[in-house]
Amino acid sequence: MTTMIGSDEASRLLGISKPTLYAYVSRGLIDRQTAVDGRTSLYPRDQIEELAGRGRSKPPVERPSIDVRIGSSITLLDDTRLRYRGHDVAELARTTSFERVAELLWTGALPDAEPTWRVDRDGLERCVDVVRAADGSGVDALTLSAVALAAHDDGVGTGADAARALLSIAPTVLGGPRGGSTAARVTKAYVRRPAPELVAAIDGALVLLADHELATSTLAVRVACSVRTRAFSALGAGLAAVGGPLHSGASAETAELIARAESDGASATVASYLDAGRMLPGFGHSVYRRGDPRFAPLLDAIRAVPGAGPTTDAVDGVVAEAGRRLAHLPNVDLALGALLHAGGLPHTAPLFAVARIAGWGAHYDEEAAERPVRFRGLTRLR
Length: 382
Prior knowledge:
By secondary structure, the chain is mainly α. The protein has three domains: 4-49; 77-246 and 348-368, Orthogonal Bundle (Citrate Synthase, domain 1); 250-343, CATH 1.10.230.10. It has helices at 7-14, 18-26, 45-52, 89-95, 98-107, 121-134, 138-150, 159-173, 182-188, 196-208, 216-226, 231-242, 250-264, 266-274, 295-303, 309-325, 332-343, 351-368, and strands at 4-5, 33-34, 41-44, 75-77, 82-84, 87-88. The strands form two sheets. It has a three-stranded antiparallel β-sheet. The protein has a three-stranded antiparallel β-sheet with strand order 4-5-6. β2 (33-34) and β3 (41-44) form a beta hairpin. It is globular and about 70 Å long.
């Protein structure tokens, strides 16, 4: 994601006056964008630094990412919408439970009735024992559970079977009760008597986060499946990837941002990030250039949670202040951090990982129908 800077900083880095900066823009040497407030001019830092450094020899820069493109019928996203099996995800989050959406991902059809996921009591006890012995929590507890289930996997089940089994166990492994919806059980792992509105907001978050095309963790699941790794082990690969701070860890950063905005004010908090040259967490997206379609429905659900007013006020303040200084719009990580903070959940609660297990099950089964060992990496000497 490109970091944008204001005219003062751009002029300083180039060692030129503002009129000269504007002349560079008119000559096409530098791009200019308008901040969300519709007034402030912003400039790409990488272009400014490149222009400032012309004349100095530099080694060739490698591409920042390695793109993998495959065909899939599970999830479709573009710059404005996200759809699971043709269903708009924002609408699903408002009207449909996580369990029904998971079945939609796995089967391609939205069930009319609420699904009942059977809990394998022997498997649950094994997972609880393993997690307790390792003193695991959060994503680590889920990863340990996947490994424990894989040890007794006969290899005949599908990705949907494995995801369904792991999701039926996961809330209890995290400390929740054995009965109830996934959202209620996960919430009760951290909040003793949650308001129904909080459970509903968490259910919506699970729906919104259940899949997102070929994210890094999803690619890990598909690569594991391509060599015919058993389903629970492939889910474990996804959990190992999602446990990285650059994947599901963004919500912890945004929760901290919101907590600071509540105590110090939005303006001072945003300034403390941007003036220090730090990225402001929870803003911008490589695909959703016109706004993350998951942000608004999740924030709307949070507004209904009793006592969430200070949190949503802080979010509104951060969004408004960022709009004066950034060309990026808020993404779902900002809303997820707000949910964790407003709901009194630990900032590291693995809502993202629980939700994504559903999508991984679907991707495992889709990959199992493809030619095996189709992912192959190449290296070059450097």
